[in-house]
Amino acid sequence: MSNYSKLPVDVQREIDEMILKFDENKDGKIEIGELSNIFKDFGIDATSEELSQAAKDLDTNNDGTIDISEVKEFFAGVRLAE
Ligand SMILES: [Ca+2]
Ligand SMILES: [Ca+2]
Asked: What is the band of 1 on the pLDDT scale with cuts at 50, 70, 90?
């Protein structure tokens, strides 16, 4: 069972809306540039090494791209840990 599906519907919606904002070019994937903006949103000035490490961590199926569902799972994990 995914972390995302364990969350209440209102929290799922909150995460959906946040991620839609992050995907600026609306291609259903988060590119490094968009990831960099996400970090900035959280007040983190990430280096390119940190960004590529984060991209690797987020790409849970290792296909070289971060898709929306992978980001959803990440934030769902964060919310569940709170
Ligand atoms: Ca995108
Ligand atoms: Ca992936």
From this structure: confident
CATH classification number, 8-81, choose in 1.10.238.10, 3.40.1380.10, 3.40.50.1000, 3.40.50.2300: 1.10.238.10
Instruction: Report the separation in Å between the CA atom of 57 and the middle of ligand 2, taken as the mean of its atom positions.
Output: 10
The alpha carbons of the chain give a radius of gyration, in whole angstroms, of 12
CA of 55 to the centre of ligand 1 (A): 13
**Nearest ligand, measured from the Cα of 30:** 1
Ligand in closest contact with the CA of 29: 1
Regarding pTM above 0.85, the answer is: yes
SS3 state at 44: coil
